[in-house]
Design the sequence.
């Protein structure tokens, strides 16, 4: 254990020199120094133990310090930590591809490994543009999406995040202009209203000659508002895209690998997209890694074009450590009935969060798979409310009006109850 003086040094140096995500360099949000993490528990240097409700931004699906994942990394280190993927291949990359092909939507067969979720989105958009250039339709360079979506913080990805309610409105005219349809309002599990599609249909009718692809998060809009919408929207959208000659991209960075109760959110639909992105949980949260996966006809069309190749190549593409731990993560999922576990988490969150619907300060309660959301009527003060969560021995990081959890799949019912009851208590205390 560190001394109080050593802990203070960490915090002071951090405050002076480190810039955390979405924080001010002048008045940063408080941070909590982590000593170690095990299972679903994060331990601070002062001995405080927190039940993790965030799975480290949804990635640590098997919890922390998992022996199988640890071993995968250590065994791979004995051979090589990295080798360039240009001109080389290796067993970890092929092993992972074979595992992915067993679980991906049928027809998605060309796997392009990359560094992170945002980069996978950038790659998927480049694929779409190059596909149409190779098809002799170079005017198709724009994208359509729905409002309240989120696809990452890199430049092109920001352009398809909601320009008004999203986190990137500040950049305004600096971003490439895209087409934004109304957010589908038919809820997951509710009645489907065909009028939800009217806005997108109008955009595709009027601008299909400019649009390379529609990109959106299937079923679950994550960081844009934690909204769960009706899968029929995607079924109908797929028909429209085929009618107007537009590619369909599903961003499964947050929803992939079981989070919604299906291996991928697209399995709630009858759709196979032309391109799909995966990330976050692919490595079990051990390192940054992702992939953009295309159908054979997309890959072949790109390769038959003027360039003859797909014009992208990350330095750490196909990293052996990331491939090895990703394969091990998929093996863990295959080793038990993860779907029953997710449904159990879903049932418990629905039961224990139900009382929040009666709170006057709560606007909505939503649960799908291992995602639980309490939407408040007004935005919460993150620093203030997070301090209350830590006091309750839980780690929850809300944004805007959404207090939500997406815990590791290994969480026990008692640990989950500590999370849900702690959240309910904090809401009551926060709003007085």
Sequence:
């Amino acid at each position: 254990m560190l001394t109080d003086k050593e802990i203070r040094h960490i915090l002071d140096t951090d405050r002076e020199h480190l810039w955390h995500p979405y924080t001010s360099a002048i008045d940063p949000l408080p941070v909590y120094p982590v000593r170690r993490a095990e299972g679903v528990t994060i331990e601070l240097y002062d001995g405080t133990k927190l039940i993790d409700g965030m799975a480290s931004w949804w990635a640590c699906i098997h919890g922390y310090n998992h022996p199988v994942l640890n071993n995968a990394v250590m065994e791979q280190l004995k051979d090589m930590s990295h080798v360039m993927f240009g001109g080389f291949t290796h067993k970890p990359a092929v092993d992972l591809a074979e595992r992915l092909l067993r679980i991906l939507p049928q027809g998605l067969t060309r796997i392009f490994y990359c560094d992170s979720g945002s980069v996978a989105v950038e790659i998927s958009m480049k694929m779409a543009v190059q596909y149409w250039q190779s098809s002799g339709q170079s005017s198709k360079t724009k994208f359509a999406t729905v409002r309240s979506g989120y696809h990452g913080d890199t430049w092109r990805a920001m352009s398809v995040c909601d320009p008004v309610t999203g986190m990137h409105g500040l950049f305004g005219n600096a971003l490439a202009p895209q087409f934004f349809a109304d957010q589908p309002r038919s809820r997951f599990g509710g009645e489907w209203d065909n009028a939800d599609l009217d806005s997108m249909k109008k955009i595709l009718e009027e601008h299909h000659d400019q649009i390379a692809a529609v990109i959106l998060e299937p079923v679950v809009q994550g960081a844009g508002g934690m909204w769960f919408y009706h899968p029929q929207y995607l079924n109908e959208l797929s028909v429209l895209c085929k009618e107007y000659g537009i590619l369909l991209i599903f961003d499964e960075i947050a929803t992939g690998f079981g989070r919604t109760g299906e291996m991928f959110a697209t399995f709630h639909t009858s759709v196979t997209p032309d391109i799909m992105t995966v990330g976050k949980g692919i490595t079990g949260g051990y390192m940054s890694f992702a992939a953009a996966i295309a159908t054979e006809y997309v890959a072949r069309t790109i390769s038959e074009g003027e360039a003859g190749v797909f014009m992208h190549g990350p330095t750490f593409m196909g990293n052996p450590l990331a491939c090895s731990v990703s394969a091990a993560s998929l093996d863990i999922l295959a080793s038990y009935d993860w779907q029953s576990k997710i449904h159990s988490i879903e049932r418990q969150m629905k039961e224990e969060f139900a009382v929040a619907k009666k709170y006057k300060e709560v606007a909505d309660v939503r649960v799908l798979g291992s995602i639980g959301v309490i939407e408040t009527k007004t935005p919460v003060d993150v620093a203030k409310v997070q301090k209350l969560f830590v006091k309750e021995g839980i780690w929850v990081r809300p944004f805007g009006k959404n207090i939500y959890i997406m815990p590791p799949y290994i969480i026990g019912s008692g640990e989950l109850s500590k999370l849900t009851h702690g959240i309910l208590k904090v809401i009551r205390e926060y709003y007085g």
Q: What stands out?
A: The CA atoms of residues 9 and 15 lie 10 Å apart.
